[in-house]
Amino acid sequence: MRITLNNALAAAQAYRGAAQAALGERLAARPIDREQRAAHGFAWVATTVAALEATLAWCESGQDSNPLDTKIATLAFAEGIGQLTGGLPMGQNEIFRPADLGLGAAARTLADACTNLLDADHAATRAEVAAALAGGHWPSETLHDTDLDAIRAQYRRFTDAAIIPHAHGWHLANTLIPDATVQAMADLGTFGVCIPEEYGGLGLGKLVMCIVTEELSRGWIGTGSLGTRSEIAGELIVLGGTDAQKAAWLPKIASGEILPTAVFTEPDTGSDLGSLQTRARRDGDRWVIDGAKNWITHAARSDLMTLLARTVPDAKGYAGLSMLLVPKPRGTESDPFPAAGMTGSEIEVLGYRGMREYALQFDAMAAPADALLGGEEGQGFKQLMRTFEGARIQTAARAVGVARRALELGLDYALNRKQFGRAIVHFPRVADKLAMSLVDFVTARELSYAAARAKDSGKRCDIEAGMAKLLGARAAWSNADAALQIHGGNGYALEYEISRLLCDARILNIFEGAAEIQAQVIARGLTGGRN
User: Fold this and answer.
1) Segment 424-430 mean pLDDT
2) Contact 395/472 with Cβ under 8 angstroms?
3) Which residues are catalytic?
4) Which of 60, 104, 284, 400 is at a distance of 20 to 30 A from 490, taking alpha carbons?
């Protein structure tokens, strides 16, 4: 089968090349926004092939130590090639067909090259994978590095003991992650994973960040996401801060003494950051901030805002934006926004709780004279863009953690729920859901690791990061939906954890760049499509 998968991958890569060429011809005549369906469909083609590449590399790295790995890879290829030749889901009601890019002949060539794979009946393989899960057997997850494997084990133990038993109660109560849990995460080094050792961090790479985030998100997306704000703030300061800013902020962020929040988005702007209207102006020895921000996570309990504002009012679009490091007093339940010139109101949300979402208003809020990141005006968007890759890789890792937990819940319920005299795990439609959820989890995980490795190598990886987030978000939602279906009516009850997972999974396709934005980034990056 390994030879078959290698041949199938070569054929899929050729199909990707045909799709890229076809899209390139279209974009030579029309802007990418006029060809969104074709462009985004190509992005899904490229992402699917990249996921197959990552999955096969993972399978081969195990050297047949776990027979379950080959079965999962086989199912991943059968489904991936089937979607490439028949129809790729870009959304619940949007299927990209080969004909959408004039790829009918190329799709038939791909299908002919993969006849054995596509014509095989994989029902027995799915049943074997589900039976292995039911018996407590999981596919390989080693990273072939004892230190990395030890980090995973440490965070899994922590998540099992300190997060999973409490997360659903925290969610239902819409409470903040308890301070004791935040401190315990800080003690593990969570907030300083990628901050250099000279500033009190661990000085590790994005692959470690993925492992940590994945395991924490498996417990609750709130705990997995808490470190995202520290990651963004840390990267902004490491890459763009002055020596004084690095010395002042990085050690406190790494230790968890300072909890940052990202203050970028505004009402009605969405992904169009060039239209931001919040202003910051110099006034003597301080900056004065006026405007409104929206969807700001963890705004009340944070101590530092990385705030994107327009400091050059006459400059158009991104050119007038600057990044400010704005300290603020930490809020309390009774007084969430004690800073002068700053008010906020909570946005009630379905899921993604534990930090809370806010709409903020600034009315002559003061920031210190040295708040300007790097001491440079007009560089804010460029500085922020340098963090996009890491943030999207981390979001992919969050999705992977949610996808795994959804599978765990579906499996546990299927093992214990009995209907018609036997556990429902033995019914083929239930077993199929579990098997394919495992396949989706593994492919998303391996693609996120591939993106992290690319980032750690020092290369630009906006395309790889976008692919990892695009696929991870789909896997999280699909797995949560399948697990809830396995629960039946009970899954719709708030008392069951899977109800939370479904709500948490849904946000992953939206924040840190919606799925449509990721597809646009991928397509433009691979073809050079014009606006």
Assistant:
1) 96
2) yes
3) 512
4) 400
